Amino acid sequence: MRNRTSEPELEVRTDSPQQGSPLRTPSQALRRRSVGRDQATEKLSQPKAGEAETPCAVEESHETRERNWRDAIATACADMLHVTLDDLRRRHERYRSERQGKAPGAADRSFAIDEGDLGARAPRDFADYVIMKTLRAHDVFSMQNARSWTFNLMDRTGDGRAYRPEFVRYAPLMPPIADGAIAELEFEVLAGRAHRQSDCNEEAQNGDQQGDADGSSRGVRPVDAAEPFIGFETWDSFLAALVKILTKPKPEWTEAKKLLQVEPGELLVKSHTAIDHSGMFPIPGKLFLSERYLAFIAALGRSHFLLPLELVRGISTTELPIIRRDCLVVTFEPPSRKDFAADTPVIRFAPSTGAERRLLFSFSEFRYATQRDAWHAYVSEMAASFWCARRNNLIADGVARMAMRLPRELSETSSAAIADAASMRPAAAELPKSAMRAASGNTVERSETADVTEVASLYYADLPPPVLARVARMNIIRSRALKRVNQGALPTRLLVFAPDWRLESSDTGGATSDDGEVLRRKHEALSKYVAAAKQIADGERRSWLSRAVQRVNVNLEVNRRRREAEREDEPLDISLLSRNIALFIELLAPFVVLFQGLQYVVQWVQPVLSAIVLVALLVMVAMNWVKYLFPVALATYAVFLLLIRVQLAGPAASDQAVATASERTTSFSLIMRVHNGLRVTQSALQAMNYHLAKVESLHLWRAPHLTWRYLAALALVVAVTAVVPFRWLFGLLVVYCFTLQFRNPDARDFVDEWYEAIPGRAPPGEGATAALRTRAEAPVT
């Protein structure tokens, strides 16, 4: 524990504060500024000879400590942003001038909050402005030693305490730690008002006694005993629990989604071993609660089911009469085929419980009902979020189904809170590694444009659950982390969607209802969420042009992230590479045979067929029907597909017979039986390599004089095509191709001589052998 009677070192605390090791910070500016600050504080704290230290001097010393601490924090944040303090001061002055120029009550779009909430969330001074800008430009979970660094940002004077004003301003900027609607409720749970108040009183008494013994009170900050605070140990435990819940691998949920045919990106809220008592016999299995579904995977048999939370109509508890097990009862409405398609997983895996239409679950616990009560709270909160969305006409307006990032230009605090929750990144275990690497971003570039209107986390929510359900999931995850901090007692202050059911668990095992003040604050938080969702719904009803532009921007970003996620790094596998090469050649063979078929016509192998094609092409040129050449090619391709069907199973075969015959053959084997495709492919690839090597030499200027001739020919072609109509050029090309076989094979024009003079690529090993042979045959001088 740090000595409170001396000037504290400006260090960031380690994850194990008992060891006393100094905190590592992302910047060394804290340590550089601590020397000058200590000297200044020592001069201020030392009274003059023969004079007692006055209360004004003590208060001035405390103000100096707070100012020096926050100045050092601002310097470190500026280093992280790669921006000088002078530049940040100019930006802060510009922001203040803009704020002063606005009318009272005007929305502050730069901070995404309204005027009435500026006292809690707006920056009070320059240090607050820099800290908020840093939190917006960085993802707190990707920072080194994030738990101690974020606590230092909330620490007012470096004495190891985070008070309510700093927590309410900074915690909502660290998603998923908190949001603007429930920040104060979360602080009260972390602070533990009654326990911390007794600690403050005891510490104040010990400080007074020590000050009387030493004859001075230097270094002891006058603390209001009634003001709650969060210690570093509590903060460290909470963040560690939150990160563990978000990043814990969930292989069972992944397998359950595959089995139930649920979207792979569906996010999990909670899972636990349970027993299904809905049928005649109890069935053990695994119970899953996600953002949209309540699912059960049976360990024995096929009694799996998938229940959408929007169909849940009631949650209660009961006790089985004979085996006396505490059970969770979920009443639901059977899914209708009108609302859900017949081939959806909801219909295929609908729970079948007869006329009772309820599900009964018990958990692996004896003589206590901790898990049952927790699941009662979780399922009630998630189902209540759907009821709340339906009651406020949010699902009918399409807001509950939107699969896009919420607009950041909203000016309500609750809107920013919902936007933070909706754009919150999924668990790291559910994301590909490439997506996690791509989400880190460029800190320097983000620092230039980052403001508190942007979220540092770059993940998008690809699934379309209701917005309120996503908020409820994040609040449940925070409550689970707080439960670990409270040593098993589930805090329900953050579960705001069903406040009538919320019960605070006590140490004696009983339950006491929330008092009126807590219920009132829950209702206020719920009102903020609903108001924000309605404002988002109004934003969705903007002009079609603004909606289209916003949608295009979101799609561009999401598609870019998906492309990056598909680029997984795989080790080189020679066997896999050889199989892929063989498969590529096999799939390429039909196109090679098609090219050979064109040569078959042009080379007059069948004179009648070649004459018919030549006459048809010349008629198209004469009648100016060249523009119909592409539709004719598509029609020929369609006829070719029909001929393949006839050859696979006959002209009168059914579609099922054609599909069965197609599974037993491939396009390559079909063409190989007719044209001996393997030999054709080999010869075609050899000819292609010969010509491609000449093209490569021509473009790499291996023979400059030949490349210059090629450029002159290109200029001539450009001039001719700009003057002569395309159909006459096409006719000339047809005549040239069809008359190649009539030429004297020994006659060579200037084009043939130019093409033959282009050097190709020597086969492997022949280049060195030819060089040695030339050197050996050279005459000796």
From TrEMBL:
Residues 15-28 have a biased composition (Polar residues). The chain crosses the membrane at residues 604-621, 628-648, 710-738. Residues 1-64, 196-220 are annotated as: Disordered. Keywords: Membrane, Transmembrane, Transmembrane helix. Residues 1-14 have a biased composition (Basic and acidic residues). The keyword Transcription does not apply. It comes from the Eukaryota. InterPro entries: DUF639. PANTHER family: HEAT-INDUCIBLE TRANSCRIPTION REPRESSOR (DUF639)-RELATED, PROTEIN, PUTATIVE (DUF639)-RELATED. This is GRAM domain-containing protein. It comes from Cyanidium caldarium.
